[in-house]
Amino acid sequence: MRDYLATTFLAAVLCYVVTPFVKKMAEKFGAVAEIRSRDVHTLPTARWGGVAMWISMCLTLLIVRHLSLVGKSFGHELEGIFLASTFVILLGMADDRFQLDALTKLAGQALAAGILLLYGIQIFWLPINGVITLPQSIGQLVTVLIVLVTINAVNFIDGLDGLAAGIIAISGASFFAFAYLLAVVNGFSRAGSPSLITAIIVGVCLGFLPHNSHPAKIFMGDSGSMFLGLLLSAAAITLTGQVDANSISSENGGPTLLPLLLPFAVLAIPLADLILAILRRARSGRSPFAPDREHLHHRLLSAGNSHSRTALIMYSWTAAVAIPVTVLAFAPLWVGAVTALVLIAVSAAVSRAWSGKRKVKP
User: Fold this and answer.
1) How do residues 86-117 score in pLDDT, each as one tens digit?
2) How far, in Å, CA of 343 to CA of 320, rounded?
3) Which of 68, 156, 226, 231 has CA 20 to 30 A from 359's CA?
4) Which residues, other chains included, contact 46 with Cβ-Cβ below 8 Å and sequence gap of 6+?
5) What would the DSSP string read from start to end of 290-358?
6) 327 close to 321: Cβ distance less than 8 angstroms
7) Considering the entire predicted model, what is its pTM?
8) Do residues 76 and 192 lie in contact, with contact meaning Cβ atoms separated by under 8 Å?
């Protein structure tokens, strides 16, 4: 555990230090978010925050490979994840600078998923009426769909200072706890790519947040949202490959089935926003990729909450879903239920308290 904590701390420090230099580079090359009608920022702001995250990941990997436990995680799978994440960073940099169209980005994201497939990172089974081992082609299709959905869920939630970085930090921490504890409970190697990748996700998000919190000095941009979405989906898909489907039974099915479901649980808020946006735009006859100002964070802002309060409210919503699901995997049902009730009560209290504050006007 100490190796992973050191990895998270190192990634956070590096990202915090590197980000100001990337900000200057983005401004020099014109990767700047101008003011548009749907935006909530009031000043042109540098993008390419994902580049700072990628650089921090690279430096972190170079250093921690010498640690006794984490160093064992380096192998074929991690190489594939690194190459795929590098590809989406380049794609995101181009989009942040030149504003690529939605179909081009979607094709690029599918190619990144293809890189994962080339390195054997794919879904091999699904929990349908027990366990179904998937034909290779179907497993590859499911893998690509999971990558696309996760990337775009993160992308959709990245519309407010500090929002996506905070939500992914909470989600990544929950997923790390699950991956590490699953290794302990089931006895397979704790030195796995999922634990290492999620430890880095948490670190880069925490290091980036001071620069990205309101008022943001730099945005993560599509380079950052696609990078984080790719890493999270890759960690989830890799973890399913470490679970022996034949060992799944009614007694231990819960923990072993969750690797496939947990990413969707920890990303419940971004996924809900993604689904609502697609339905909303389809009903109005618009493209699912057409931007608007009706996301969850836009609605909270319109209700009178500040940027920081809106972000914190959505952090609390994320924690209220992600943490109980992780707890439920390894604790009795009543422990998970109590955890959920406590976090839901805290989230409701926070939201209600601020709702009351915004109604008080001089």
Assistant:
1) 999 999 999 999 999 989 999 999 999 999 99
2) 5
3) 156
4) 22, 23, 26, 27, 31, 32, 33, 217, 218, 219
5) ---S-SHHHHHHHTT--HHHHHHHHHHHHHHHHHHHHHHHHS-HHHHHHHHHHHHHHHHHHHHHHHHHH
6) no
7) 0.88
8) no
